[in-house]
Structures are given as structure tokens and as C-alpha cells.
Design goal:
The protein is mainly β and 172 residues long. The protein is 3% helix and 55% strand. It folds into 2 domains: 62 residues, no CATH class; 104 residues, Immunoglobulin-like. The protein contains 1 helix and 20 strands. The strands form 6 sheets. A 4-stranded antiparallel β-sheet has the order 3-2-6-7, with no helix packed on it. Strands 14-13-16-19 form a 4-stranded antiparallel β-sheet. A hairpin with a 2-residue loop joins strand 6 and strand 7. The chain is rod-shaped and about 85 Å long. Pfam families: TIG. This is IPT/TIG domain-containing protein. InterPro entries: Ig-like_fold, Ig_E-set, Invasin/intimin_cell_adhesion, IPT_dom.
């Protein structure tokens, strides 16, 4: 972060009460740069303290959550067409945070075949959402598969971007 002012030589900076690090002031004492300390999303007060006193700008800095891309993968519907038979009774979709590489739990995933909603399921601890396939087999066959989508979300640590995927019908 950069702060411009006067008489900044010897300054320290806090943001939200936490000290900034790497504070460097230019030779004329009119500009300082510093590394922002970690903080919770939202506004934070900025306080500059110099040998001549201190000044606080209320809400002078805003922490924002990083945006993490997500990927959603869908497992193909396994079925036997004649006679109609489902080999695996669940459609599954896995949601992964592309920045951390970790599964994303507790997020709703929409399952659709064409314009028909097959169900909405929350991801589990492994990032996997499951919807029963047996009752929707006809819709899946007519549409040659199904689609899954994640609308995106804001978590305490990041903003997760939306993602989607499609899965075909596979006859083993």
C-alpha cells in the first residue's frame, strides 16, 4: 500500500490495529509504502504514527476476499438401454477450488437434463454432490446426459467463481 502526505519520516502504520511491515519512506518524507497485514474482509482503519503525532483515517483501507476459480466435474450416467437398467443409482458432481486444489464442501450443485431440474444437492466434505438417477433416467436418456452447475459463493476465506460441466450417458 502507498500513503502520501508530509513529514512521514520515521512513520509506522497500522491497519485495523495490526502493524504493516516493510514500511519505507521516500527521501523527501512525502510518501511511504508498506506491506498490508492480514485482515478480515471489510473496511479497516489506517493509523500513521510519526515522531510528530498520529492520524487515523477511519475505514481508510478495505480488505477484499480473493477470487478463487472452481472446477466442477460430473460423472457420466452409467446405464443399459435394453432392457433399461441403471448401473449406478447416483449422478455425482465434484467441486474443487482451483487455487487451493481442495474440495469445496457445503455448496449447492444444480443437476439438470435439458430444461428439467433433476435435483439440487450440497457437496459433502470431499466436495461431492449426489442426486438419485433412478427416478430421472428417462430425462437423462432423452437429453443424452445431464449438466451440473455451481452458481458461485462467498465463503469466509474466498469468493468462489461459478462453474459448470456436462456428463454423457455411457452404456458399458
Amino acid at each position: 500500500m502507498t500513503i502520501t502526505g508530509t513529514n512521514l519520516t520515521g512513520a509506522t502504520v497500522t491497519i485495523g490495529g495490526n502493524p504493516a511491515t516493510g514500511v519505507m519512506v521516500n527521501a523527501t518524507g512525502t510518501q511511504l509504502t508498506a506491506i498490508t497485514p492480514p485482515g478480515a474482509a471489510g473496511p479497516a482503519d489506517v493509523t500513521v504514527t510519526t515522531p510528530g503525532g498520529s492520524a487515523t483515517l477511519v475505514g481508510g483501507f478495505t480488505y477484499v476476499l480473493p477470487v478463487h476459480a472452481t472446477s466442477l466435474t460430473a460423472t457420466p450416467a452409467l446405464t443399459k438401454l435394453f432392457p433399461p437398467h441403471v448401473y449406478f443409482p447416483f449422478l455425482t458432481a465434484t467441486l474443487t477450488d482451483q487455487v487451493t486444489g481442495l474440495p469445496v464442501p457445503n455448496q449447492p450443485i444444480l443437476f439438470k437434463a435439458g430444461s428439467n431440474v433433476l435435483g439440487i444437492a450440497n457437496t459433502d466434505a470431499q466436495g461431492v454432490a449426489r442426486v438419485n438417477e433412478t427416478l430421472t433416467l428417462t430425462l437423462i436418456l432423452i437429453n443424452h446426459g445431464y449438466e451440473v452447475s455451481f452458481a458461485g459463493a462467498v465463503t469466509p476465506t474466498a469468493t468462489l467463481s461459478p462453474s459448470s460441466a456436462g456428463a454423457p450417458v455411457i452404456e458399458p
